[in-house]
Design a protein that fits this description.
Order of helices and strands: HHEEHHHHHHHHHHHHHHH
Structural class: mainly alpha
CATH topology of the largest domain: Growth Hormone, Chain: A
CATH superfamily of the largest domain: MFS general substrate transporter like domains
CATH architecture of the largest domain: Up-down Bundle
Largest sheet: 2 strands, antiparallel
Strand content: under 5%
Number of domains: 2
Radius of gyration: 22 Å
Mean pLDDT: 80
Strand order of the largest sheet: 1-2
Low-confidence stretches: 1-15, 27-32, 240-262, 457-474
Number of helices: 17
Number of strands: 2
Distance between the termini: 10 Å
Length: 474
């Protein structure tokens, strides 16, 4: 399962910042797993989520609206309302399924226990993504989105715990950085290609571009999921090691571990972490969701879509260049000061946007936003792995999906307030959301910095968990 922490001075060169990017495709320490093998599945999963959400779903919503009106509780939804409702429903399903599949994978003490969920969920998501291409009505789109969230998060819940299963505590920051690097690369590269394909799409004259898009996502998803499953699988079987007769002592220990997994133990520190994570998600989601309208109404761009695309590219590149150094530095020097720097960067970027009047300053500020996003992405995942127990790692990490749901929902409901305030005074809603984002960044960073200081590199796994893990891997 997890490798012990070594303190060999010969490792100094291997841990140098200069070799950081080279080690993306190398091993962390002798005998430990390649960090890319543990995390490359996220390239395919994030590529599907962002490719569908940003590139294909808007077209499906428009086609569904052509078939007939969409009404919820007597209220007629337009295109933005339909997109928002589908997004929120998907997040609710994601949170529930991640918790359930994660808890199921925790109950198996054998090595490789996460991989069957990743394989089944990945293949199921690929199949549903193909079926999604045939949807035409709102009901069929809704069913497809729910099914995609079910299969995708059936894989994601157990996969969340791969780092804590295989990476020693003092390397988890770097592992989290590499995980988020592949996540960003998948989301950015696949989505850019999908957007180019869908720009040529027409349901009647050029339907093939939809299928090119779906084929790309499915192939990338299957390759990356299979890469992780095959490379991380135990050497004594496809997914599981040989089943040996267990000693009575081990049977008793395993039963004790299973009983402990049934209890919901969320420490005060972890609860505070989830609250802080929700603030960070709300801040980052708000800047993403309303960027296009901000560029149109405040900056005055005639074609805000082009400006939004360029801004997204700048933020993704800046975040991608940040996640690896953030993980490395957090392992070497701790997470506290980095959280404070992430918060200051987010607050500064948000407040500077109050004074912009052209696209140039917005793009420059986008670099600062990307740095803040990259820091928060890596550091929050590293701290989450510091706080959870080994016995219930996937289930407890699944609670982060609830925090994500809370933050994302708050950001989307804030749109109502933006419109109301804009009716009172020109662009007042945008100003208030930027101030709210700055406050959210500050609160998140302050809470997370305190948690990181109080829990620095303490692995919250019990001796009982460790003994079972070692016995299972023999």
């Amino acid at each position: 399962m997890s490798n012990p922490v070594h303190h060999n001075p010969d490792d100094a060169d291997e841990l140098s910042l200069r070799s950081l990017y080279r080690r993306v495709l190398g091993r962390s320490r002798r005998g430990s797993h390649n960090f890319t093998n543990l995390s490359i599945y996220s390239f395919g999963l994030s590529g599907v989520w962002t490719g569908v959400g940003a590139g294909i779903l808007p077209f499906k919503v428009l086609e569904a609206l052509e078939v007939g009106r969409i009404e919820i509780l007597g209220y007629t939804l337009d295109k933005n309302g339909t997109l928002g409702m589908l997004s929120l429903l998907g997040l609710i399903v994601a949170a529930a399924v991640q918790l359930g599949s994660g808890a199921l994978s925790d109950r198996d003490p054998r090595l490789g226990k996460r991989l069957p969920y990743l394989l089944v969920g990945g293949i199921g998501l690929a199949i549903i993504t193909i079926l999604f291409g045939f949807t035409t009505s709102f009901i069929t789109v809704l069913i497809a989105i729910v099914a995609m969230q079910m299969f995708g998060n059936f894989a994601q819940g157990p996969a969340n715990a791969l780092i804590i299963d295989h990476v020693p505590p003092r390397e988890r920051g770097e592992a989290a950085g590499i995980l988020n690097l592949w996540r960003l690369l998948g989301a950015g590269s696949v989505t850019v290609v999908i957007l180019q394909f869908m720009a040529r799409y027409d349901a009647d004259d050029s339907p093939e571009w939809l299928w090119y898009s779906i084929a790309l996502m499915v192939v990338v998803l299957l390759i990356t999921v299979l890469w992780t499953v095959i490379s991380v699988r135990p050497s004594t079987g496809l997914f599981f090691p040989r089943i040996r007769r267990k000693s009575p002592q081990l049977d008793n220990a395993t039963r004790d571990v299973k009983r402990s997994r049934l209890k919901v133990n969320i420490t005060r520190s972890y609860f505070a972490f989830l609250v802080a994570l929700a603030f960070a998600i709300a801040a980052m989601s708000s800047m993403q969701i309303y960027a296009l309208f901000f560029l149109q109404d405040v900056v005055g761009l005639e074609n805000p879509a082009d400006g939004a695309d360029l801004l997204v590219v700048i933020i993704v590149v800046a975040a991608g260049l940040t996640v690896l150094p953030a993980g490395y530095l957090s392992d070497r020097f701790g997470r506290t000061n980095l959280f404070m720097f992430a918060g200051i960067s987010g607050v500064t970027a948000s407040l500077l946007l109050l004074f912009v009047g052209s696209i140039g300053p917005v793009l420059a500020i986008g670099v600062v936003i990307g740095i803040s996003v990259g820091l928060f992405m890596t550091l929050t995942w590293a701290v989450a792995n510091d706080l959870v127990s080994r016995a219930s790692a996937a289930r407890e990490l699944g609670y982060t999906s609830i925090a994500t749901l809370a933050g994302a929902a708050a950001a989307r409901f804030a749109g109502i307030g933006i419109d109301e305030l804009n009716n009172i005074s020109e662009n007042l809603g945008y100003k208030m959301i930027l101030i709210s984002v700055a406050i959210a960044f500050a609160l998140s960073a302050a809470i997370l910095a305190k948690i990181a200081r109080d829990t620095s590199f303490i692995e919250p796994s019990s001796n009982l968990d460790s003994s079972v893990a070692v016995s299972a891997s023999d």
